[in-house]
């Protein structure tokens, strides 16, 4: 492996405001970011951060990726929902129906997330940030397994999931068909362990594609020491040089 998952980052119109929401909800501490962004420690064995990076892109559809928060009891689930609503979240309808045992919310910038009912065996031991649930093909799940060096922990009926060898959050893909590109979404930031150019070539060999600076959707495009790529499903991610 030649790069690691540095952050799961939110596209944000107001990064500081959104970071305060997620810090309050998760009890996550702010940390220095060598790339000049806003970052929180995830408190997760997977080792990544939560990032908040500025964008002017509008949110045009349901996000392709969202967090599933776990609960230890019905009371714990209700408490997490209450805290989120007090911090500025709202209830969201993504077609879950009135009998759903999980609660769907949206943060102050409209990013959907779920607070799951207790007893989810698949996410047992994963921590509060139990899963990043993504819309995506089997090919993209296998791409990210190879890109990050995280083993597949599920690969069945077009659905895939990976998890860091150290445990923590699982990243899952639900298979086709894919939802429309939401524009404003959650994205992966990778840090190259060694040579940035060599790591770009490795990721391209696995199925990534280059994204031109004027196509990235970022205000100002990529900065020095970073490259914007897209995975096999067209989801953009950043590869960052080590600092």
From TrEMBL:
**Domain VOC as annotated: residue spans:** 125-242
From the UniProt entry, list the residue stretches annotated as the region Disordered: 211-231
Endpoints of the signal sequence: none
Q: Provide the protein name.
A: VOC family protein
Q: Mind telling me which InterPro entries this protein's record contains?
A: Glyas_Bleomycin-R_OHBP_Dase, Glyoxalase_6, VOC_core
């Amino acid at each position: 492996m030649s790069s690691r998952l540095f952050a799961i980052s939110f596209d944000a119109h107001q990064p500081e405001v959104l970071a305060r929401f997620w810090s309050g909800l998760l009890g996550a501490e702010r940390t220095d970011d060598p790339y000049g962004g806003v970052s929180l420690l995830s408190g997760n064995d997977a080792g990544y951060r939560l990032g908040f990076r500025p964008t002017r892109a509008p949110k045009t559809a349901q996000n392709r990726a969202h967090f599933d928060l776990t609960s230890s009891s019905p009371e714990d689930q209700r408490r997490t929902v209450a805290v989120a609503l007090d911090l500025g979240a709202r209830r969201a309808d993504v077609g879950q129906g009135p009998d759903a045992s999980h609660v769907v919310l949206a943060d102050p910038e409209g990013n959907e997330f779920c607070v799951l009912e207790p007893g989810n065996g698949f996410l047992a031991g994963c921590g509060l940030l139990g899963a990043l649930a993504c819309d995506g093909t089997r090919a993209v799940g296998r791409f990210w397994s190879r890109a990050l060096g995280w083993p597949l922990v599920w690969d069945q009926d077009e659905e895939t999931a990976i998890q860091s060898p150290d445990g923590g959050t699982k990243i899952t893909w639900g298979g086709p068909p894919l939802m429309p590109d939401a524009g404003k979404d959650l994205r992966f930031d990778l840090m190259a362990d060694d040579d940035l150019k060599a790591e770009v070539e490795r990721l391209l060999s696995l199925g990534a594609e280059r994204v031109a600076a004027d196509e990235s959707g970022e205000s100002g495009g990529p900065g020095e020491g970073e490259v914007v790529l897209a995975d096999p499903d067209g989801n953009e991610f950043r590869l960052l040089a080590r600092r």
